């Protein structure tokens, strides 16, 4: 029979053992946010806990003019029976939403259809850039209320290898992506596709003065890019659809092809917390990590077949999130060594996850899917 003191000691030991064996839990959960649209969101850009933008394409019925805040209120009324131009359709469905209250409410940015804006990227609540349908680059210093042309796109020739009637087309330069790391350093890129059907020149632009001047770098990649991640003003990594992985240490002026065995040929998402420690999501949806800047990789086999991930984000070296198909949300507290299935309130296809600090995060996806992180 145990003495009282022995009993207390044994009970404490058992409690510690049970606690140690209990499965870890995520430090919070995710709640749905209604943007008032059914848009498919492919990227979220937050600059604070309250101010952010969603880049997407319409997945809903086009609004009538009287319900669209972006239409010119002074436009002449249409004659009876006259067809009303749909600005969203004219914008190829691209639509940008903004929140200033942490996602509680959303509205389309002003005059986005007049400016033909397809996506935006801001570095603070006032300073941002936009990419237009015509591949021009615009600049705003007042949170997107007004825009000024910064770079007008030139033309590029698209070779259609199987089209004998129109073997070559003159199109706007294929600038498809725009990113800034601060108020001065930014990049724009796109194109580069080469296959049996078509050949398209690639373009890579770099600025170090906030877009006042853009320098075109000779396209260094073997194919069009699947993903580019910028850690700071000097270091970045890129994955191409040609099955190659690249890195730069001079702000994108020169790129080096990383000669190593990759966990997969194409990365959907790349994320580094410093020059050595990084994680990727492969085309199959599986995860891998590196501790030497991408020279060697280790697959994370704990991710089972039912989890097909699309994006990954780490708030620090140990704590990270991954999102993917059918509402998949995973959390790691130990640099990706183990993962917790958090799950989502909706079984949507998630494409992007972003955090501002450790306690404010958003997940965006198709068919109007938007979630906000709620810490415990």
Describe this structure as you would to a colleague:
The chain is mainly beta. Helices cover 6% and strands 39% of the residues. The protein has helices at residues 4-21, 87-90, and strands spanning 28-32, 40-46, 52-57, 94-99, 107-108, 117-122, 128-132, 137-140, 148-151, 155-160, 168-172, 177-180, 186-191, 198-199, 202-207, 215-217, 225-230, 236-240, 245-248, 256-257, 267-272, 278-282, 287-290, 298-299, 309-314, 320-324, 329-332, 340-341, 350-356, 360-365, 370-375. It has a four-stranded antiparallel beta sheet with strand order 1-31-30-29, with no helix packed on it. The protein has a four-stranded antiparallel beta sheet with strand order 2-3-4-5, with no helix packed on it. Strands 6-7-8-9 form a four-stranded antiparallel beta sheet, with no helix packed on it. It is globular. Residues 6-22 and 60-78 have low confidence and may be disordered.
